[in-house]
Design goal:
This is MFS transporter. Keywords: Cell membrane, Membrane, Transmembrane, Transmembrane helix. It holds the Pfam family MFS_1. InterPro entries: MFS, MFS_dom, MFS_Efflux_Transporters, MFS_trans_sf. This protein has one domain: Growth Hormone, Chain: A. About 55% of the residues are buried. By secondary structure, it is mostly helical. It is globular and about 50 Å long. The chain contains 17 helices and no strands. The protein starts with a helix and ends in a 6-residue tail after the last helix.
């Protein structure tokens, strides 16, 4: 057995190497989902599509994840976790590489849906997979480290792939990501421990979980938080152009990413002990950052700081909600996190579609007002959800 596998079996120690490898999976997972948002103008021009159709490159991916997460996670519960993860990585890689070789919008949308289906299974299963490798007191830490890849993907990965897309073309960007995913899959073959699946029971079914009030509260917070953030982020290029930000989209993403990186490090350390405080703070920072955009526009320094604050708010988004829903159940955490993940992706779809329609009628600044309107109820609910966010 490898040293990493042996460390995983000793649940009193934290298997950092394995968790970091799992984090690289969520890193490429979020890049696969959001990559079009950084090169949307180029894709719109090359594919001869509208801004709403461009938004669908992310929106359809998200809705596929939302629709297929619960049934496919339930269907694959008994699969070996390592084998299932390798199959999902293959799906990510192939869909991105083929999309990079084509200039057909319809086929690319189909490939994006395939990628979304893989994501719908990957997000909940990898969190539960990681939790099974550590003791209960380290569940929040495991989720935070694994989901740190999501934040690093946005903070570091998105500026890099956006640069590649702008310098060498969005098709090169897609192909490069696909190849990188294959490298990660190869590492997973040798480093990840083989873990059997679980049997799905009536008490752990998605429908049973939806009868738990605390689970419903987490799902509502997910809907509010994700819709608020992604409604703006998917169209971040439009916001940057509207306020005429010095440094452009790359500068905005780097500042956003720096804030995200700091907050995810805080989440790794404090999620198990201060879940409610972190959730309230996340919503509050979103309101503040959006208010700064409204009041100061593209003022040099102030608007840049707003992107940093927004990143601080965004960083722990996935970690907090997956940790919260996993605390509500003892078994079949895959199913619990799949319900939350499905809500997460459904929220992205709603935010993308709704924001796209608003952009057709108003300036991009309307998205900041939408984010505030969604975040304020999130603050109130999080503050009073003492039992749920214990």
């Amino acid at each position: 057995m490898s040293e990493q596998g042996a460390a995983a079996e000793d649940k009193d120690s934290f298997p950092w190497l394995i968790m970091i490898l799992m984090s690289s999976v969520t890193f490429v997972g979020i890049l696969s989902e959001l990559m079009p948002s950084g090169v949307l103008p180029q894709m719109m021009a090359d594919l001869d599509i509208s801004e709403v159709q461009g938004g669908n490159l992310v929106g359809y991916y998200a809705i596929a994840s939302a629709i297929f997460a619960i049934p496919l996670v339930s269907l694959t519960m008994q699969f070996n976790r390592k084998v299932l993860l390798l199959l999902l990585l293959a799906g990510f890689a192939i869909s991105n590489i083929i999309a990079g070789l084509l200039l057909n919008y319809t086929i690319i949308i189909i490939l994006r849906v395939i990628g979304g289906i893989c994501a719908g299974v990957m997000w909940p299963m990898i969190a539960a997979y990681g939790m099974r490798l550590v003791n209960k007191k380290q569940h929040g830490k495991a989720i935070a480290v694994i989901m740190a890849g999501n934040t690093l993907g946005i903070s570091l990965g998105m500026p890099v792939v956006t640069y590649i897309g702008n310098e060498f073309g969005w098709q090169t960007e897609f192909i490069a990501l696909g190849i990188f995913i294959l490298v990660i899959a190869l590492l997973c073959i040798f480093m990840l421990p083989s873990t059997p699946g679980e049997k799905l029971t009536k008490s752990s079914s998605p429908f049973a979980l939806l009868k738990i009030l605390e689970v419903l509260i987490v799902l509502l917070l997910t809907l509010l938080g994700v819709s608020a953030h992604y409604g703006v982020y998917v169209y971040i290029t439009s916001l940057v152009e509207e306020i005429d930000l010095a440094g452009g989209i790359e500068g905005a993403q780097l500042l956003f990413g720096a804030g995200s990186l700091i907050s995810v490090l805080l989440a790794i350390k404090y999620t198990d002990k201060h879940l409610r405080l972190l959730t309230v703070t996340m919503f509050a920072l979103l309101v503040i950052s959006m208010a700064v955009f409204i009041l100061f526009g593209g003022t040099v320094g102030i608007s840049h700081f707003a992107f940093f604050l927004w990143g601080l708010s965004f960083g722990p988004l996935v970690t907090l909600f997956q940790a919260a829903v996993s605390k509500q159940v003892e078994k079949a955490k895959d199913v619990a996190t799949s319900v939350q993940s499905s809500t997460f992706n459904f929220s992205i779809m709603l935010a993308t579609s709704g924001a796209g329609l608003l952009l057709g009628l108003y300036s991009p600044m309307v998205l900041t007002y939408m984010a505030i309107a969604l975040a304020i109820p999130g603050i109130v609910i999080s503050f009073f959800a003492k039992k749920t966010l214990r």
